[in-house]
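call fold target=Thaumatin-like protein
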Amino acid sequence: MRSCVSSFFLLVLFLLFSTIVYFTHAARFDIKNNCPYTVWAAATPGGGKKLNTYDVWAIDMKPGTNGRIWARTGCSFNEAGIGTCETGDCGGVLECEGSGGQPPNTLAEFSLDTANKDFFDISLVDGFNVPIDFSSTSAQCTRSIECVADINNECTAELKVKTGSVGCNNPCTVFQTDEYCCMSGPDNCKPTNFSRFFKTRCPDAYVYSYDDRRSSTFTCPTGTNYSVVFCPDIKQKGSVTRFNITNNCPFTVWAAIVPGGGWQLESGQTRSHDMSSDKEGRIWARTGCIFNSTGHGRCDSGDCDGLLECQVNGRAPNTLAEFNLRQNFFNISLVEGFNVPMEFSPTSEQCYQGIKCAADIDKQCPMELRDPGGCNNPCTVFNNDQFCCKSSNCESTSYSQFFKNLCPDAYTYPLDDDSTSTFSCPGRTNYKVVFCP
């Protein structure tokens, strides 16, 4: 009798321990619809649920689960849960099973408890149908990623969904070629103009099949809980910074912003760009550019791998407006040289500190730094430790002093970290960048 009782209590303890372990490491996903219309949330595993505006659906995922969450639009289901959706349809059922939905659909993807980490991403590999925010909600991890650009309205003609609900398809579904579908593996799978279109608008997102860079996949410790929000109201949260970029030069420039892309700016034109306020990056002008209809070409200064919509930093010389919105710092940098005069100023009432580099540096440039695109930096020209600061021994030089004398506000060598080089404004400040102020 004692052995039976002991076995019973051991079984109870085992089940209790297993339950504790499960709930310790399971992840809760709160899925919210902030869109001004009904969506039908889908989760595999997990099923599906109709969500009116502001409705929330909470689901728990077991450790070791790999899955995805997305919104379906334009759906109609009968009482048995059978029907159709215009985007994201999963076999005509309300409660989805299997691997995913019919493109186009914006995806929140996750892999839980892999080597004591959760991996998660936002994917546009299947296209885009609604904006999305994918964030951790546990104190142990504060990572948040989003894709909130107006992609449906900006979608290229080839990818635009022409019937039913608005959506922007993926090039694999549209063209069915190896270039876009990556059927022959990662060695032959590279970014394309279409993947760059998505990446410039949603820098956090995974945009083609082997887009395995650090800016595409994110991690939190195992046991983290998450929220997925369709149509996050980022303006209401105050998490958007607006940059007004103006070309006052008497010639055309090609503005570049990373993250964000690039575009042509004729003399006198202004273009606005909204950016999530947890980003850091840089803005610059490119000159002497020629691009074809696919956005490939070259620039005399500031060229970014021959692309109109920049994915990487530009080639020196280029005057830079640099910012860290998370820490509220901004500066003008001549560390990579000078190509056009620049002003970088706040436009919000709570901050008045503007900075400028308006000197005619090109005409005064030392002969050894002169470049067809402007006035180059000494590191690019001489490539030694004195100017490139590859070690910790980094001091001002005659060249950095030349730039500093002409542009006292500017950051002029890699460790030029004094109070005359870096400036700050409170959070939620908007800015303007003016070329040739």
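return ok
DSSP finds nine helices and 28 strands in the chain. The CA atoms of residues 12 and 18 lie 10 Å apart.
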